[in-house]
Amino acid sequence: MENARDYVIxxxxxxxxxxxxxxxxxxxxxxxxxxxxxxxxxxxxxxxxPEPHYLxxxxxxxxxxxxxxxxxxxxxxxxxxxxDKHILIIISLRFCRQKREELNRRWTxxxxxxxxxxxxxxxxxxxxLAIPLTVRKRRILYRVIEYAELLDSSNCVMDHWISLAKDxxxxxxxxxxxxILHGTDTLPCAASALSFIFENLEKPVVLTGSELPITQLCSxxxxxxxxxxxxxxxxxxxxxxxxxxxxxxxxxxxTVKSSATDVDIFVSPNCPPLAESREDIKIYxxxxxxxxxxxxxxxxxxxxxxxxxxxxxxxxxxxxxVKAFFQPPVEGVILQTYGAGNVPSNNQELIEILxxxxxxxxxxxxxxxxxxxxxxxxxxxxxxxxxxxxVVSGCDMTPEAALMKMAYVLAKWKDPATRRRMLAHxxxxxxxxxxxxxxxxxxxxxxxxxxxIDASLEHTRGLGELLSNxxxxxxxxxxxxKVFPALMCVAAETDDTExxxxxxxxxxxxxxxxxxxRSPLHLAASVGSIVxxxxxxxxxxxxxxVDKFGYTPLSYAIRSNNSTPALIELIRxxxxxLPAFMSAKAKEANNAARLGLIxxxxxxxxxxxxxxxxxxxxxxxxxxxxxxxQLNTVRYLIAPARGSSSTNLYESSELDMFEVDGAEVxxxxxxxxxxxxxxxxxxxxxxxxxxxxxxxx
Length: 697
Known about the structure:
Elements lengths: L1 H4 L6 H9 L5 E11 L4 E4 L2 E4 L3 H8 L13 H7 L5 H9 L1 H12 L14 E3 L3 E2 L7 E14 L6 H13 L6 E5 L5 H11 E2 L5 E4 L12 H13 L7 E5 L2 E4 L4 E2 L8 E2 L7 E3 L3 E3 L15 E2 L7 E5 L6 H6 L7 E6 L10 H13 L3 E6 L11 H7 L4 E2 L5 H14 L3 H9 L17 H5 L2 H5 L3 H12 L1 H4 L6 H14 L3 H11 L12 H7 L3 H9 L14 H7 L5 H9 L8 H14 L2 H9 L14 H7 L3 H8 L38 H8 L2 H9 L2
Helix pairs in contact: 7-8, 8-13, 17-20, 19-20, 19-21, 21-22, 21-23, 22-24, 23-24, 25-27, 27-28, 27-29, 28-30, 29-30
């Protein structure tokens, strides 16, 4: 199985080549899970049916999905062309020769699919493909997992979506984002279910499909798949389950299918798009769901309760029909009511059935409106009566989201009061909760000319309010959209917590970026400010967003001259990690070894590295320290490590409190091209290093 896993994880040499190719500034990676649907179907006997491997083979023939300038059929030719550039490239070639020969064999023999993978359902994986460089000069690599049984979405059940989530969890750390190709009929159900199945999600999971096969001239499949790849592999960092369709990225649990035949398949009636890709890509960061708990790693909730039902009221509905919906084994019912949540309150038999089911038999009832737009609200007496029966308001949830949330809540919590509380609370942005407070209006701030002239915090508030309400009032000038991110980033970099708190009250989030796509958390980490970092993380800042160079906030924290173990532990407690690619992690650590920065190496160790990771040249930190004659670094790396001298690393502020000994790396570890550290030292006649290494043989 371990060998089969290698067919899914992208080859390090391909990733490193992308990073070094001319014109490329960053690299993203996407795992595409192809479950079925019209996008890969072919006509057969007058009807469309799934065709195994047809879609992936078609993608390899399309330049927009397989940039042949990056991945030509003669894969070895590309590597050979690099030999003249630098001697280290030749070493890298030797390091990856076996892998390269395997890739060539698969290409030349047209064997483009792997053996069976360790997925929940039988599947195969394609070769690595690449789309052309994006406008932001980002190279996105992707691989397609195709399940052996390609399903029409009408045949999907909850277990299928749980297995998809488990497969994503298995390769979660190895990719920037994920795309799920799914049939459109039940895609909103799938998106809603996955939004609850995933807990502590920090990476984009984008669902898409098409009404027509991708090979048809009028198909929407090409645009939808390309857009999904862009948003899953780009640096935007939208940590939600979303749906991409017709140039819009929609929140998954807010999406409904609006047409049975048109290519404008999906709409989000009560939640505007999170992003749009028209003449340029626009991200609405203020609309992205911010989780209050980012301290834990991704968790897949493996249980959804199937004992749920949807009851749509209609005039003259009989009491017997309603009563039938509350018979065992039903545990939860979505009640689709009229208008703003109204029921026929003069039908005492109906009201009594609802009362008995909710209050006596503890069946969970969620009140949602039959209307696409608008929300459940206590406006009329015919709706207020449900509150007295213990019925929970579903606000503006879609039927799909309400059904899947009910299944999730019933499976996760057993106490009836807790279940009702969780149903009434927005868990994944699936509903608009009633607004309890209103922000200070723009007019109240700008009413006084003195406040607009005074360069004070009130001026900043006014500007922020202007920006945050730009879509509603149309008053924000274009230049202002550049000023507000600058204010946020400067405040983070200068330890100005007061301004950050004021800006957060206005904008409601910290997802702003400078010209290098560095977030306020990047900048606070770069100056080692644990107070600001804690403020940002508590406010929902994404701890794993990458800048244009591929670095996360944890990378910045380690490289900061003011960094402490406490800061590293804080970011890690909120789920912060180093870059996903192993060679990128090794490159960071090896650079510290090259410069003899032992303190930084200790922090990398604390952040989870073994310091034995190999970079693109096939070297680990010890080999690098030897090559650059860093004697003290060599001593630190091979010295035994007794661990921390402090029982509470989080409260520790001094380096010697968390590690006073060595890294205990293997002194016999060989490079990718077969040399040990001792052989490297002897080759260069570094006598003092040879003596140290021989002493530990």
